[in-house]
Write a structure and sequence with these properties.
The chain contains 17 helices and no strands. By secondary structure, the chain is mainly α.
């Protein structure tokens, strides 16, 4: 019996999933770094919250914009080379930042270099790996890979906050640069571009292994043109705009707002940076649970109803946050638990709905454009919340607005895929 067919043989897809998890975990630590250093960084350089937020906003915007082109790059140049390029960019961007002194230095390093590296190692990577290497357990794997963001928070945030308190904000940048550099040899040694490279079929499939599969129709074409052509076709459908619109709100209510500004908002209320970072880490713990369970649920239940529940719960949590920040300590713990449970639990059902509506072959790139919308929302929230804080001296209006948007998103996801035919022929 061939290795691909033996039920007792450990499938290489799980090694691929593990390498991808570690890569996404390091990238998550890199993306979380600005939120930890936002306050001391701005204080040292005497820059307003709005000015500092503009740098983070550009970073988040490029992180999302690169996503759909990253999916095309995976097809053109392979997963392994693209992932190593992503880690190299993150290493360079953060490794050079301690020597930066001018606003444009940070715009280039944090905005362009780190933003591009983050976009190449983002949620789209997890979707590409899950679609390429798994036929069964795809939802669960996507949940686990998405949960790498939460694990990154658990590992990095307390350590980064402690380093910032003890040695200043530059210490956090050095830690992240070393961590991302350490992932490059791991990718080089164990990552493979597709199942045929190791003589197996995708996990869950049986039959003879095609050791030399034909190139995809677009594997030798221009990645950017391919990504734009997919967008042009997908944008003709109502479902794409519902997916993209709801994910815009998802981004505006997660990493753009909470990931970037929660520590600063807590500091405004007299909460120390280390304690606030620990709060984010606690949210990461519950997000790890919630996102993993979400992946399992998305294989078994209607993803529209799952998203309805996730966005609704998040909206209620954000509406409660202003009171939790000024109330008893227990209030923040309650917020961390309920908000953390669905921080990014929306990803597995959104990936599955995207594949159902647009077909497996185009799912990664279409989802890349949906993620781009997510990060545009995050960029708007990162900058907008900074402006609100500068003008109103409080983050409360930003939190309440995000909560109300989540209620709108909860209603918007219910019609996805119901009134239109599948467009898997795109």
């Amino acid at each position: 019996m061939s290795a691909a067919l033996s039920p007792r043989r450990f499938h290489y897809a799980w090694i691929i999933a593990a390498v991808t998890f570690v890569t996404l975990l390091a990238a998550a630590g890199a993306r979380a770094t600005p939120g930890v250093i936002l306050l001391p960084f701005g204080n040292e350089l005497q820059w307003s919250r709005a000015k500092v937020s503009s740098i983070v906003s550009l970073n988040i915007f490029l992180y999302g914009l690169i996503g759909p082109f990253a999916a095309a790059l995976y097809e053109r140049f392979g997963l392994s080379r693209t992932m190593m390029a992503a880690m190299a960019l993150l290493t360079a961007g953060y490794g050079l930042s301690p020597f930066a002194t001018q606003y444009w230095h940070f715009i280039f390093l944090w905005g362009f270099v780190v933003g591009t590296g983050s976009g190449l190692a983002a949620t789209v990577l997890g979707a590409a790996v899950a679609n390429r290497w798994f036929t069964t357990r795809r939802g669960m794997v996507m949940g686990l890979l998405t949960a790498s963001t939460a694990t990154g928070q658990l590992i990095f945030l307390p350590a980064l906050a402690t380093a910032v308190t003890a040695h200043g904000w530059r210490a956090a940048l050095i830690i992240v640069a070393l961590a991302t550099a350490a992932i490059i040899p791991v990718i080089w040694r164990w990552m493979r571009d597709d199942p045929a490279a190791v003589g197996v079929r995708p996990y869950g499939e049986t039959g003879p292994v095609d050791l030399a599969p034909p190139a995809t129709a677009h594997s030798t074409g221009h990645p950017a043109l391919h990504a734009l052509n997919v967008l042009r076709s997908a944008a003709r459908t109502r479902d794409f705009w519902l997916l993209a619109g709801s994910f815009f709100i998802c981004g505006a209510s997660t990493n753009g707002l909470i990931g970037t500004h929660l520590i600063s908002a807590a500091a405004d209320c007299g909460i120390t940076e280390v304690r606030a970072a620990s709060l984010l880490a606690l949210m990461g713990l519950f997000d790890l649970i919630g996102t993993t369970v979400s992946g399992w649920l998305s294989d078994r239940y209607n993803c529209r109803y799952l998203l309805f529940g996730y966005y609704g719960l998040r909206g209620l949590s954000l509406l409660f946050l202003p009171q939790a920040l000024v109330g008893p300590v227990a209030g923040l713990t309650v917020f961390a638990v309920f908000y953390g449970l669905d921080w990014i639990a929306t990803v597995p059902p959104t990936v599955r709905l995207t594949a159902e509506v647009f077909g497996r072959h185009q799912a990664s790139i279409v989802f890349g454009w949906v993620v781009a919308s997510h990060q545009i929302g995050a960029a708007c929230a990162a900058f907008g919340a900074g402006v609100i804080r500068t003008e109103a001296t409080t983050y409360a209006p930003a939190f309440i607005s995000a909560g109300l948007l989540c209620v709108i998103a909860a209603a918007a996801v219910l019609p996805i895929g119901r009134l239109t035919h599948s467009v898997s022929k795109i």
